[in-house]
From TrEMBL:
Gene3D superfamilies to which the protein is assigned, alphabetical: alpha/beta hydrolase
Single GO molecular function: protein serine/threonine kinase activity
Keywords linked to the UniProt accession: Kinase, Serine/threonine-protein kinase, Signal, Transferase
The UniProt record lists the keyword Amino-acid biosynthesis: no
InterPro entries: AB_hydrolase_fold, MlaA
Highest classification ranks of the organism: Bacteria, Pseudomonadati, Pseudomonadota, Gammaproteobacteria, Pseudomonadales
Protein name: Serine/threonine protein kinase
Signal sequence extent: 1-22
């Protein structure tokens, strides 16, 4: 298994003049209580403002595995053997029902917090639900990706499409009335490319596709998140690092509480205690999670493809091998490094690619502008204060989607997905 801590589980996962036809939600009537985008991104919605959801025990669900790349069983090291089959989760109704696929965000497993919330929301509304890991997760890269070098959106969409077809083939008894698709964060961008691919392959004929907080310009989003790691934080010097500072705050918080309980409700309460994080500390936490994801991708891609950039070619990686040296080396490689050393060379070799700017255009929503304009089944929900957006991104979405774009005034990056107002709007969209 990869060696990077899964801090993303705590996050879930990881800008305005408006034409009148875009559905910009009035800040005065919206009611979401967190005005700080960093705080919203980390703690999401206060529990009392979330919708009622079915309990896990009331959901007919199970985890399954599908074999897509049998050759990987002989290509990957021992510590990856457990993921040479791709896992996914299926929640099924007891009768014929629509089915919705959920694509997780950057580096996220199919059981991530946001995916679990969306599963419960749609299952409670009567849908079969399939949860898929992100193409940037180590398990998808190992078990499903043809190149094991995620980031070129059309390739990632092709891999996802094959997975969806394999999932359907594995459950021939499942009665499906129609197919829908959604994704959050990077998974939303990939959902758009999957929908575009389906227009020609017609395996699913998706009825509705909802993109939740997608990056518009992928490189802008990457740059925004990478910069957060460079935030200057008070209290961190040559003798105290960021993780020691965080551990001290959490220790004092749990001592005051008298017990340890790590969940989203705890994070919300933590941010309203004396130990709450400053804006700079929250920014660095978000950036650190993103950096771990980048390092995980770089390590996994390098190891599977035997590029020798992080793990020496021919050096055996076994169950007992110390991964600390590779951990340190991979953390030095941010997304710029991964793009330059692994993604662009792969793109040029497989697709006769050119410059970085050309690749950015091909992997971002710009590449689907005409399709997004002409496809009434696709909608986007985004936040005006989302950390991944850059100048002009919302303008592009407004021009491209018109009334199929909903812009919420608050919520940070995916922090308001589990807010009742947003949840109701998602269900209304899929109901038509």
């Amino acid at each position: 298994m990869p060696f990077f801590p899964r801090l993303a589980v705590l996050l879930g996962g990881l800008l305005l003049a408006a034409p009148l036809w875009a559905a910009d939600v009035d800040p005065r009537s919206y009611g979401y209580p967190l005005s700080n985008p960093f705080e919203a991104t980390i703690v999401t919605t206060p529990p009392e403002l979330r919708p009622s959801l079915p309990a896990n025990g009331d959901i007919d669900q199970a985890d399954y595995k599908v074999r897509l790349r049998p050759e990987r069983e002989f290509e990957v090291p021992e510590n990856f053997w457990s993921v040479t089959k791709l896992g996914y989760r299926l929640a099924q109704q007891g009768n014929e029902a629509p089915l919705i696929f959920i694509i997780a965000g950057t580096g996220a497993h199919y059981s991530s917090n946001h995916s679990e919330f969306l599963k419960k929301l749609f299952y409670g509304a009567g849908y079969h639900v399939v949860q898929l890991s992100s193409p940037t997760s180590y398990d998808f890269m190992t078990a499903a990706s043809r190149s094991a070098t995620p980031g070129f959106s059309s390739d990632d969409a092709d891999d996802l499409y094959r997975v969806m077809q394999a999932v359907r083939a594995q459950h021939p008894q499942l009665q499906v009335s129609e197919y829908h698709l959604t994704g959050y964060s990077l998974g939303a961008l990939q959902a758009a490319f999957v929908s575009h691919l389906d227009e020609t392959r017609r395996a699913f004929n998706f009825k509705r596709v909802l993109l939740l907080n997608p990056p518009v310009n992928v490189y802008t989003s990457i740059s925004n998140l990478d910069r957060l790691v460079q935030t200057r934080v008070e209290g961190i010097d040559s003798t105290t690092n960021f993780y020691e500072l965080m551990l001290g705050k959490l220790t004092r918080y749990f001592q005051a509480k008298g017990h340890i309980d790590l969940n989203e409700a705890m994070l919300y309460d933590f941010q309203h205690s004396e130990e709450q994080l400053s804006d700079e500390q929250m920014a660095m936490l978000i950036g650190a999670v993103f950096r771990f994801s980048a390092a995980d991708i770089a390590f996994t891609s390098d190891l599977i493809n035997r590029r020798g950039l992080i793990t020496p070619v021919g050096h055996p990686i076994r169950e007992g091998t110390s991964l600390t040296p590779y951990f340190k080396r991979a953390l030095q490689c941010n997304f710029d490094c991964y793009i330059a050393e692994q993604l662009i060379p792969m793109w040029r070799a497989r697709h006769d690619g050119g410059s970085l700017s050309q690749m950015v255009d091909q992997v971002s929503l710009y590449a689907l502008e005409d399709y997004l304009k002409g496809s009434d089944k696709i909608a986007v929900m985004h936040n005006a204060d989302d950390l991944i957006l850059g100048r002009g991104d919302l303008g592009f979405l407004r021009r491209t989607l018109g009334e199929r774009l909903t812009v919420y005034p608050l919520g940070g990056h995916c922090g308001n997905l589990n807010y009742r107002v947003n949840s109701d709007a998602m269900l209304e969209f899929f109901r038509g």
